[in-house]
Amino acid sequence: MVRSWYMDNKLDDPQDPHIGEEIDTKQMCDRTGVEYWYFHPDHIQTEHSSLEKLKNDRHYSYEDEVTVQPTMENYEKKLETFFNEHLHSDEEIRLVLEGSGYFDCRDFDDRWIRINVFPGDLLILPAGIYHRFIPDKNNYIRAKRFFVGEPVWLPINRPADDHPARKTYLEEKVVRYRNGNQIVVTGDSIS
């Protein structure tokens, strides 16, 4: 299951863990607006009513799979793109099927939180959150991607503070968080 921590300030290999202060899943969700679910890996490929309900409730109408590994075309270039800090105008939804990796998300105080994902972990990164991705030292992750409508994966590199998705993220998530109205985005632990 997912682990998360504030990253240390070292600037060496991005595939190293860079473990700083560890935080639990609820803290990670509360401090970023990221939503988290867990689906037992043995049940993901079979009919899973909880996953189907989530997809229906959030109107995910398209899904595909992506595998990130050294044999993929332009692997090094793709890693650069994934690891460059960016945001999207839509949610980013990933369900890990195999392997592991790191999603780094900026918290509401602009500090990096590293989210270490494993099979069964599903993350929903809100539109407008600054984030990046890198596989861990195993250099392998296979994940399902979910979309509302046709797939759009357009990274908008930082700085993008004037982008409408970023403004909405700041208004809906950060302002409420800082005003003491903790947002409930932890999802359910589903097995």
TrEMBL record:
Q: Does the keyword Membrane apply?
A: no
What does the cofactor field's note say?
Binds either 1 Fe or Ni cation per monomer. Iron-binding promotes an acireductone dioxygenase reaction producing 2-keto-4-methylthiobutyrate, while nickel-binding promotes an acireductone dioxygenase reaction producing 3-(methylsulfanyl)propanoate.
Task: Provide GO CC annotations from the record.
Answer: cytoplasm; nucleus
Q: State the source organism's domain of life.
A: Eukaryota
Protein's GO biological process: L-methionine salvage from methylthioadenosine
What's a single GO MF annotation on this record?
Answer: acireductone dioxygenase [iron(II)-requiring] activity
Which residues participate in Fe(2+) binding?
A: H86, H88, E92, H131
Q: What is this protein called?
A: Acireductone dioxygenase
InterPro entries recorded: ARD, ARD_euk, RmlC-like_jellyroll, RmlC_Cupin_sf
Substrates-to-products reaction catalysed: 1,2-dihydroxy-5-(methylsulfanyl)pent-1-en-3-one + O2 = 3-(methylsulfanyl)propanoate + CO + formate + 2 H(+); 1,2-dihydroxy-5-(methylsulfanyl)pent-1-en-3-one + O2 = 4-methylsulfanyl-2-oxobutanoate + formate + 2 H(+)
Pathway the protein acts in: Amino-acid biosynthesis; L-methionine biosynthesis via salvage pathway; L-methionine from S-methyl-5-thio-alpha-D-ribose 1-phosphate: step 5/6
Instruction: Assign the protein's first listed, main location to one coarse class.
Output: cytoplasm
Purpose: Catalyzes 2 different reactions between oxygen and the acireductone 1,2-dihydroxy-3-keto-5-methylthiopentene (DHK-MTPene) depending upon the metal bound in the active site. Fe-containing acireductone dioxygenase (Fe-ARD) produces formate and 2-keto-4-methylthiobutyrate (KMTB), the alpha-ketoacid precursor of methionine in the methionine recycle pathway. Ni-containing acireductone dioxygenase (Ni-ARD) produces methylthiopropionate, carbon monoxide and formate, and does not lie on the methionine recycle pathway.
Q: Which HAMAP family match?
A: Salvage_MtnD_euk (MF_03154)
Binding locations of Ni(2+) = H86, H88, E92, H131
Q: Identify the cofactor(s).
A: Fe(2+); Ni(2+)
In short, the EC number is 1.13.11.54, 1.13.11.53
Pfam (any one): ARD
Q: What organism is listed for this UniProt entry?
A: Didymodactylos carnosus
